[in-house]
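Fold it.
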Amino acid sequence: MGQKAHPIGNRLGIIRGWDSNWFGGNHYADKLVEDEKIRKYLSARINKGGVSKVVIERTLKRITVTIHTARPGIVIGKGGAEVDKIKEELKKLTKKEVQINIFEIKRPELDAQLVAEGIAKQLEARISFRRAMKTTIASTMRMGAEGIKVMTSGRLGGAEMARSEQYKEGRIPLHTFRADIDYALAEALTTYGKIGVKVWICKGEVYGKRDLSPNIGGASSASGKGGRPEGAAGFGDRRGGNERGGERGGERRGDRKPGGDRRGGPGQGGGNRGGQGGGANRGGGSRPGGSR
């Protein structure tokens, strides 16, 4: 068996905080089950809201739920109507007082959960898995990640036999505890079965002591300044263009000689084969008039 530790569980208490923040006491099991219910309910309820994680904190009578989302507008709704609905539904589910906070993720390309879900959605839309993985890797690296590894497993491309493929760029030091590595797993429900998508994103290294309170050091606050740089593209968006394609394409088109060197434009002769004679004939100069 592969003895692999979960990259987030491995860093808990070192550079990562817990997503559930409360003291269990004698009712630890009940609270744990309740947390799982809340998370499952929210992921199904706002499945198009770009929810990365749900942080749950408890006091004696109140549950504070912080939803980390890339699309706060969808979660909040018109004039906060949607949040109020979710609040009432969670009250019925838990039979306790519930408070909801919404935390915006300013750079979704650097959040492993959102990246994995983005790839899974593309696979469900029958986009080639290689293309989905490569465009995602390019957009994440453009946003300033130190490294990314993406792995898909299952009946890739509808093949009869399941297999797994992975692509890497940059560095992902999984054995380094101070390396801030975000990890997520998503599943694409395709017509020919489930395809699993795993994503590891390295955002650099954390030196010194980090505040482990749950809403600090998240996807948007850890990155320093939020917002997307001009011209950066989202998932599968090709306008930003990766540097290699853009530059090389430009060089190739720009450096071609006018008049087409192979066939020999007027007065240039047929390249290396014919001397200085007429246009497209291969024989060129030695024969009079360039004719055969």
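Confidence is low (pLDDT under 50) at residues 217-286.
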